[in-house]
Amino acid sequence: MKIAVLASGSGSNLQVLIDQLHRDENSGIEIAVVIGDRKKAYALTRARNAGVPTYSVDAKDFPNREAFDAEISRLIEVHDTEVIVLAGYMKLFQPPFVRKYRNRIINIHPSLLPAFPGAHAVPDTLKYGVKITGVTVHFVDEGIDTGPIIAQVPVRVLDDDDEESLHARIQVEEHRLYPQVIKWFAEGKLKVSGRKVIVKESA
Ligand code: GRF
Asked: Hey, which of 37, 121, 129, 177 has its CA 20 to 30 A from 167?
């Protein structure tokens, strides 16, 4: 299965997907393209180092967000990918893009959704004072972090946590969970029924 990865930042999740899936010939999963919306995203360097084709697409170069999404869609189709994996991608898609790839866009989020959606999940978690947070992997729908949840893992919030220490422990779980979920998708184990995603272990 060919996948496209979209990233805006450091790309530690991308690196795990490269190491555990792309480089493992037995996984049957190839990262066919990595697209970034910031030229300087370190994720693009990681992809280049792995020999994966990369593109940097800047929203400022397009008249509107639909046109920007259309360019991303074009690049994805050129590389013939079945699923779009968001790994720290910070832009929202417009509804036509989401409709086109319904249940084929997967995102990872550093909280237990529906708690703390949006771009500031970790500081929001600390501000609120919850004792348990975690990681959510979900399909993308038209809302902000509202799509059907595929998998979640809890992470304890410690009394002396700051943003950096908590995010670091969350990322340890992200790096375990994301490759697993992408494998489930590739193996046809994810069945979506309304808001529910069932993982069919025996599929
Ligand atoms: C992760 O914490 C992910 O949950 C969020 O953005 C961060 C990306 O980290 N969506 P990285 O670029 O993969 O290191």
From this structure: 37
Q: Does domain 107-203 have CATH number 3.40.50.170?
A: yes
Evaluate: CB of 46 within 6 angstroms of ligand 1: no
Active site residue ranges: 109
* Phi, psi (rounded to 5 degrees) for 7: -145, 150
Any ligand 1 atom below 6 A from CB of 9: yes
116 touches 133 (CB < 8 A): yes
CB atoms within 10 A of CB 143: 11
Q: Mean pLDDT over residues 139-163, rounded?
A: 98
Q: Which of 193, 155, 195, 156 has the alpha carbon at shortest distance from 177?
A: 155
- CA-closest residue to ligand 1 atom 4: 109
Which CATH class name applies to 1-101? alpha beta
Q: Is the pTM of this model over 0.70?
A: yes
pLDDT > 90: what percent of the chain?
A: 99
Please name the helix (run of DSSP H) or strand (run of DSSP E) that holds residue 126, with its range, or none: helix 121-128
The whole-number pLDDT of residue 202 equals: 65
| Tokens (6 digits) for 35 | 């697209």
Amino acid 136 reads T
